[in-house]
């Protein structure tokens, strides 16, 4: 009973402070809003409008038609025509273009005879995504070929795209962003929660009262679970409004997965809070967690493509498990009961981090 | 009648690396008394108080507060202790009333008593009209009253106050001490650290700390009698000449100027200090009124710390 009074006292105090700290309040709404719009529009693996230049040494109607065709694909934007391949290389080198097209003077003959490649693509292969686009371009059919030919061979495999038939990146990014934004805000909020009281001197008073460590920790966690759920609603709502990201699964399942994930992040934040001496240190440690979470959790790049070692590390990040859960529920309409192991992993993470935080926190100054 | 003891400490020592913050301090503090720690900054006052609260674990030695060991029973001790930190440690972004409410909940004061208790504290510490103000915007005196209200909310038997008046003007300091005497009358034992001599003089008993060592303790009267110097006050027409004349003498251990007065300390080995002073001043034709006075705390403090330095040197 006394414990409950104290937990509620801490919760009420946190809410009061939060409502008075305009910056924190702004972060709760501002971070999801800005990041969602920014990443939702910016991150796009379906590349278009790459800058390009070309040199046309044959200058025939076929070659001009070829350039017009490539431009019409919208994959590239033709910036200029240059006189020689050497100039093309210079432009590539300077970063002015990503793709150069070199049409040799015997272009017409090559098109007709088809005994070798008709033209050359100079590609800035440093970026694998651009190199991938070049692959696409090289597979372009040469429709302007006037000669009668046997119909092209059909592709070996037919692709059926499930869950995201239009191949919109936002569909994949938005549910992932839920996890990234929650990791960032939740870990950060609690990471500075105790350090801030340490810095302001409040903690010296608090540890002299009969409050017990678990009471303090739980009182600090509960208000932020609510904040996290507000952010979740905000991101999914905005994702649906701006990017038409559908929610195929049950909202209850989304809520369940998110609650456990938020608890995991808050516990991690509290653990950081007991290690860091200043708010600045707490922030640095948060980013130490955040960066790998973004890069190897499967948010950015497919999990299966990573080497085993990276995959093993990623299994320790809450975001990895949450990505599977949220994408499963939101995009595939999966039932949460089919992914109980992911949920369990998050629960174990929470329990371990919270226990460590409670053990590490000392009601003494030494 | 046996006096009831609230706090005892024996051989209390705190080492921070190579620094001896508190060195072998023994204490015995009576129930219902106001006990002062007098010492300059860095003399180990705060560290001793923190050890008595159970916030710091002593490197060696032990202390009991209300019969409980500060190491083993530190959790149950917290109900009995009210602690006021040197720095204002309530929440500056909460209002006066919200802070007190929070503290009342943390101490799990029964629901029905919380409101009346908070209202009563607001009233008795003259904070009622500030109840809705954010505590960060209060003045120094108001902050300190709020901190004392928070420290006494759960009616502790012991109050530990770490330099409570360092950011407070004189009028507020007087009011504050009045509140302390009231609490002591109700039976609260109060331990207060300070570097103000006038405050120390108001304590029932005090300990003088210097570089972590307890140099002396007792009532201000006892301490005054215990020191090994006479104090002579001189009112001279030309205090500067008088000062220069007296400084050279081996029998005079210190000369302090206070406006037109000089305060002089003379070892007790000299039987007639007035005669000694007059014998120095007359040959120089310096007109002066001399008077032997009871040592004040500043004299005591200077004499004791000087004595200790001399002992350390030999």
Give average pLDDT of chain B, whole number: 90
Rounded to the nearest angstrom, the distance between the terminal CA atoms of chain A is 30 Å
Helix content of chain A: 55-70%
State the secondary-structure class of chain A.
Answer: alpha/beta
Structure, described:
- The complex is a heterodimer of chains A (366) and B (314).
- Chain A contains 14 helices and 4 strands.
- With 366 residues, chain A is of the alpha/beta class.
- Chain A has 2 domains: 2-43 and 168-360, no CATH class; 50-138, abc type-2 transporter like domain (abc type-2 transporter like fold, 3-Layer(aba) Sandwich).
- In chain A, helix 10 (251-275) crosses helix 11 (279-296) and helix 10 (251-275) packs parallel to helix 14.
- The model of chain A has no long low-confidence stretch (mean pLDDT 88).
- Helices cover 36% and strands 28% of the residues of chain B.
- In chain B, helix 3 (96-106) packs across helix 4.
- The longest helix of chain B is centred in the C-terminal third of the chain and has 17 residues, at 297-313.
- Chain B starts with a strand and ends with a helix.
- The chains are: A alpha/beta (366), B alpha/beta (314).
- Chain A binds chain B through residues 1-2, 5-6, 8-10, 12-13, 16-17, 20-21, 200-211, 363-366, and chain B through 50, 53-57, 74-75, 78-79, 81, 83, 85, 87-94, 98, 102-103, 105-108, 150.
């Amino acid at each position: 009973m006394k414990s409950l009074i104290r937990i509620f006292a801490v919760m009420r105090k946190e809410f009061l402070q939060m409502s008075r700290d305009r910056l924190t309040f702004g972060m709760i709404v501002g971070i999801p809003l800005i990041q969602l719009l920014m990443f939702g529009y910016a991150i796009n693996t379906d590349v278009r409008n790459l800058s390009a230049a070309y040199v046309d040494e044959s200058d025939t109607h076929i070659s001009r038609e070829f350039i017009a065709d490539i431009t019409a694909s919208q994959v590239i934007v033709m910036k200029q025509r240059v006189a020689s391949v050497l100039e093309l290389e210079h432009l590539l080198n300077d970063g002015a273009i990503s793709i150069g097209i070199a049409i040799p003077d015997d272009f017409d003959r090559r098109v007709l005879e088809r005994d070798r490649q008709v033209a050359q693509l100079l590609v800035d292969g440093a970026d694998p995504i651009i190199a991938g686009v070049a692959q696409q371009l090289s597979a372009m059919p040469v429709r302007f070929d006037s000669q009668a030919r046997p119909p092209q061979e059909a592709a070996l495999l037919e692709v059926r795209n499930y869950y995201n038939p239009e191949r919109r990146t936002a569909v994949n990014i938005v549910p992932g962003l839920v996890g990234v934004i929650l990791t960032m805000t939740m870990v950060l909020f609690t990471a500075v929660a105790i350090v801030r009281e340490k810095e302001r001197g409040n903690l010296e008073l608090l540890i002299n009262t009969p409050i017990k460590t678990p009471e303090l920790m739980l009182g600090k966690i509960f208000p932020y679970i609510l904040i996290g759920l507000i952010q979740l609603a905000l991101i999914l709502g905005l994702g649906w409004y701006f990017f038409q990201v559908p929610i195929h699964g049950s909202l209850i399942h989304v809520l369940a997965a998110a609650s456990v994930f938020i608890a995991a992040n808050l516990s991690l934040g509290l653990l950081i809070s007991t290690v860091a001496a200043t708010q600045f240190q707490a922030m640095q440690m948060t980013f130490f967690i955040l960066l790998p979470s973004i890069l190897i959790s499967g948010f950015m790049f497919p999990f299966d493509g990573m080497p085993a070692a990276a995959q093993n590390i990623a299994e320790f990040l809450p975001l990895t498990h949450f990505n599977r859960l949220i994408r499963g529920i939101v995009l595939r309409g999966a039932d949460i009961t089919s992914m109980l192991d992911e949920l369990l992993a998050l629960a174990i993470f929470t329990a371990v981090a919270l226990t460590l935080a409670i053990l590490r926190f000392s009601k003494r100054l030494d | 009648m046996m006096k009831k003891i609230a706090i005892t400490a024996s051989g209390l020592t705190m080492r921070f690396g190579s620094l001896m913050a508190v060195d072998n301090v023994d204490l015995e503090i009576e129930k219902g008394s106001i006990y002062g720690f007098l010492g300059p900054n860095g003399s180990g006052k705060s560290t001793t108080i923190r050890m008595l609260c159970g916030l710091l674990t002593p490197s060696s030695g032990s202390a009991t507060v209300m019969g409980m060991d500060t190491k083993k029973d530190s959790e149950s001790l917290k109900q009995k202790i009210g602690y006021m930190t040197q720095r204002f440690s309530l929440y500056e972004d909460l209002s006066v009333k919200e802070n007190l409410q929070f503290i009342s909940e943390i101490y799990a004061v029964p629901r029905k008593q919380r409101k009346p208790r908070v209202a009563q504290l607001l009233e008795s510490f003259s904070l009622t009209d500030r109840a809705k103000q954010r505590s960060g915007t209060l003045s120094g005196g108001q902050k300190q009253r709020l901190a004392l209200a928070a420290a006494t909310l759960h009616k502790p038997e012991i109050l530990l106050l770490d330099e409570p008046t360092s950011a407070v003007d004189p009028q507020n300091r007087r009011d504050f001490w009045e509140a302390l005497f009231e609490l002591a009358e109700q039976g609260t034992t109060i331990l207060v650290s300070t570097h103000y001599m006038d405050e120390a003089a108001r304590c029932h008993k005090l300990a003088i700390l210097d570089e972590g060592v307890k140099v002396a303790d007792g009532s201000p009267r006892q301490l005054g009698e215990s020191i090994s110097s006479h104090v002579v006050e001189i009112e001279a027409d030309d205090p500067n000449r008088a000062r220069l004349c007296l400084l050279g003498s081996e029998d005079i251990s210190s000369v302090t100027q206070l406006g037109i007065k000089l305060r002089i300390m003379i070892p007790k080995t000299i039987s007639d200090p007035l005669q000694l002073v007059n014998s120095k001043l007359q040959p120089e034709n310096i007109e002066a009124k001399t008077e032997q006075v009871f040592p004040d705390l500043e004299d005591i403090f200077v004499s004791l710390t000087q004595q200790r330095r001399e002992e350390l040197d030999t």
